[in-house]
């Protein structure tokens, strides 16, 4: 890392913070702060969904797997693309049809107050674990690239993660998500050709890679793991309350479909590009062991990126992850404010609710920092991310997604499914090795976590087959939703596009300067900077015409 890299990190960090803070809205209410007034453009929502799911953990978690197993890391992420297409076709429009602000509100209307309380408190508890798992890779990346102790990095960027979320709500999250998508994509498109040059080209990479490096499966990541993990992702991305917010905040069911489809297309293409640097680093240094392989991506970047561009890559990774944290913090605050505080104090004014919303965002951010500090003691980020997902993903979110399509499920059936599945998964994860002398492999752990809740829900479908359907959630029609989109939300949408446009013009200009200063790779850096400037100009023109891409 050079002095120029540190300046790039500082300037980009300040710029992103300013972009997020620019979406601060003194006239915000619950609908605009947490739901963008239902006026969120589908392409912004789709990019935000992608960046909310995609984080620095992608480089750390999947980068470690790519370094060890090769192409299997790409195949694992392709299951997310399939999940995205299925969500776009079936799940996203169902969520939009409910007309709710949060997934918790759907559970309240569908199953009543008792079930609502249970899932609300469990979600808030689990969000701390997820947020900590998202924030930890930031510290890992900063530590590997700059030498700054992980603890300081967690606290520094954890604080930055909550500042603009507290100020601007969902609109701030969306704006920074879109901006970071462009920054991170630009950085990765620069590093890939330079990494190939480092190892001697594509032919040398293919010839010198370990045996089986290009297999779709490898090690504990078997075909059955892929199938189970893909189904898990469909439920997790389709039912996780933070991601549901992306489907409910667009104007229509048709645009909700586009959100899922865009996510699918991005995950069909991007893993091929993202995973090449750590795979190529295997040829540069094959001696990484243990948790050291979590730094494979950054180590390759340090090998090939010119001064300044390394800072760009670090910034992209850092804020891709903090954006993931911000998205989760925003929906956690929404659940607490709308589904806990507001029910305790139903006469609270909008001003009071907004104070609670911002205060809870800040408080949840502090807890996230504390959890992130504990990740190394839990076995590393790969173990934490995959184990949390296998244990809790489908048991927690599967029942709600199932209930979108079935009216036969009851409060008892979904509670029993969640509790029984969690109990069995936790037993085999933590007590099985000692009590039964049985330790599940990664594949067995994932399959169990996916199959058991689905089987239980299917059993209840059969048990209740002769009972009359429950009354479904009353939803607004698409026509009425489109007519009732607030002008305030439309104005915020135009402001969001304009903010992204100006930010991209600045990003493009800075990358152009870095390209001029770069001792090598000038053509690719300058070419990408021109594309970003053109994109910023296009968005600025769109905002002036008050149109959205369709």
Automatic annotation (TrEMBL):
Compartments (UniProt record): Cell membrane
Family label: Belongs to the sodium:solute symporter (SSF) (TC 2.A.21) family.
Gene Ontology terms, MF aspect: symporter activity
Keywords attached to this entry: Cell membrane, Ion transport, Membrane, Sodium, Sodium transport, Transmembrane, Transmembrane helix, Transport
Name under which the protein is recorded: Transporter, SSS family
Gene Ontology CC entries for this record: plasma membrane
Keyword Transport attributed: yes
A single BP term in Gene Ontology: sodium ion transport
Transmembrane regions listed in the UniProt entry: 6-23, 43-65, 71-92, 118-139, 151-171, 178-196, 223-244, 265-284, 304-322, 352-375, 381-405, 412-431, 446-464, 500-518, 524-542
Membrane topology field: Multi-pass membrane protein
Record keyword Cell membrane present: yes
Domain of life of the organism encoding this protein: Bacteria
Chief site of localization: membrane
Pfam families: SSF
Secretion signal, residue range per the UniProt entry: none
